[in-house]
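Collaborator request, handled under Task 6.
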Amino acid sequence: MFRAIFAAFAALKNIFVIIIIIFMVWMVFFDTNSWLIHHELNTDIEALENEKDYYKKEIEKDNKAIKEISTEKGLEKFAREAYYMKRENEEIYIIEYEDSLKTK
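C-alpha cells returned to the collaborator:
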C-alpha cells in the first residue's frame, strides 16, 4: 500500500504530470469554454426547447379555437357560453352547482 502511495507521489514529481493535471483543472473549472459552462448552457438549451414545444402545442390549440369561432355557429356558441349573450325574446337561466363555483 505504501508503495502505491509512494509511486503516486513519485509520479507527481514529473513535470509533465503536473502540467497535465494543471491543464485538466484549468479546462474543467476556469476556462471560458469549461465543462461547467457547457453543462449550464446545455441545461438552458433543453429548457428552451421544452418551452418551444409547449408554445407550439398552444399555438395549435389556439388555431383550432380560431377555426371554431370563425364559423357563424361557433361564434354564436362562444358568445353564449363566454358572455351569456342571448337572442331577442329569449330568456337564459344560469344554473351553477356548488362544486362548480369558484371560491377565493
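The cover message to the collaborator said: "The chain has two domains: 1-31, 33-87. Residues 40 and 55 are 23 Å apart (CA to CA). Please let us know whether this matches your experimental observations."
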